[in-house]
Give the backbone structure.
Amino acid sequence: MQNAEAFAEYTPFDFTDGPYTRKVWRKGSGPAVIIMHEMPNLHPLVLRFADRVADAGMTVFCPSLFGEDGRIPSKRYMLTQAVWTLCVRREFNAWANGKSSQIVDWLRALARHAHAECGGRGVGAVGMCFTGGFALAMMTEPAVVAPVLSQPSLPLGKKGAALIDSTEAELACAKARFEAEDLTMLGLRFTSDKLVPDTRFAMLKDRFGDRFRAIELDDSDANPDTPFDPHSVLTWHVIDEPGSTTRSVEAEVIGFFRDATAPLAGPAPAL
C-alpha cells in the first residue's frame, strides 16, 4: 500500500557522488536538515516528521536509501527489506567490524551540497534505526553541526552492543569537533528497546560526556496502536497528541536543529 499524497509538497532530484545515485526529496526553506529514514523505507510517518521540521523554518532533504518510497510498510515487507539490505546491499554495514557504511560518504556529499544551497551555520542530520548512527559518522564533514541518533540499532548482535557503526577516526573527529566548535548531539531511544542496548548509550555517554544528550523514554510513552514494540521515537511510536511525551521530544529535536543551524548573527549596523 502506498501514500503518494505524502510527497505532494516535495520536489525530487537525483544526487550523485562517487558510485552512488539516490533520489532525494526536498521541501521547505532555510537551513538544511538531512532526514535519513528507518527500515524498511521512506514511509509517510518519516515524512510527517520532515513536514514539521520544514514548518519550523528549515529545508528538509529526505534521501531514499532503501525500500519503496511512500509505501506503508507491513511486517512482511519490513523483514524482506531487512534481509535484502543486510545480506545483499554492499553500501551498508551492519556488523561489529569497526567500519561505517559506505553510503555515509554519499551522505557527507549531500550535506555539503545542502549547506552550499541553503546556507546557515551548518546542516542538521538525523538517522533512525538502521541509519541511526550515520549522523555521527557524518561529523567528519564540517558542514554537519547537529547530529541526532534516533534509536541507533547498529552494529547488530551481542558483539556490537557497546559499539556504534562508526570508525575510530570518525569518533575521534566528532569528539574533537564537539569540543572545538561547542557542539552537541542527541540520542533517542525507548529503554526497553533491545535493538538499542543500554551499553551502547553508556558508551556514548562515556566517550562524549556532556556533549551527548540522551533522551530515554519508557514504554508507557509509546503509541500502543502499532504493530511493533516500542522503538521508533520520531515515527511509529509517537502519540500524536499535544502534550504527549513523544510530541515533546519531537519538539525538542526540531528546536535543536533550529538553534544549531541558524545563521550566525551579523555585526551590529553602524550608527
